[in-house]
Amino acid sequence: MTSWNGQNTAYFTEDKDDHIYNALVRSIVEHKLLPGNKLPEEALADAFSVSRTGIRRVLQRLAAVQLVTLLPKRGAHVTTPDAEESRNVFTTRKLLECANMSAVVAHCQSPHLAAMNKLLQEEKRAHEDREGTAAIRLSAAFHVQLQAISGNKVLTETVSQLTLRSSLAIAAWGAPWQQGCRCHDHDDLLELLKQRDAAALAEKMAHHFDTIVASLRFESSEGPTPDFTQIFSEVSPLPVKDRETR
Fold this sequence. Notes:
The chain is mainly α. The protein has helices at about 20-30, 40-50, 50-65, 85-100, 100-105, 110-130, 130-150, 155-175, 185-195, 200-215, 230, and strands spanning about 70, 75-80. It has a two-stranded antiparallel sheet.
């Protein structure tokens, strides 16, 4: 079961293969692994020092949340959402997040505003420092944490999952420089939250999603097989006792 964990937009669970699952999710969300990238079991097994069986379990979990596509005789690829699916992901987010603004405003307290402001400042710094992966992660975190203020855990978890698919859509169809949402939109959203103007907040959020969709370029693309050893070189290795023998 997924959970929200502060600013670290959490799509993370607590099962045996989480170390690998979480590393792959983060790499997909942060556009280190792109739509269409091949995910060969052997290469991933080498990168994580585990068996192909363990990698296969993780890939099946990722397929269940639509981040990976498994095809007979073609193996696993990072999912490439088509244009219709991509539009529908943002349409669904728009419906859910805008409709929940009244509950967000009703439950918002000073600590929430302070946390949102801290998150926004970190997102701005990531953009200024051209730290693309951090900017993408923090952009998603802004939306999830905003919805979490309402106290509706089911909706927050749903939005958390949808941000994963949004990241795929932006990776597949966005411009090369596109790194999450535009910071000044989040500035405006936070200011309206401080004013407790639920109607204006919902209107601004709707415009925000419309702008994102309008920025996407729906053209076909396919990526090569990534260098997994390099991508996951900074991931803490599994304890020796948890490594699998092939």
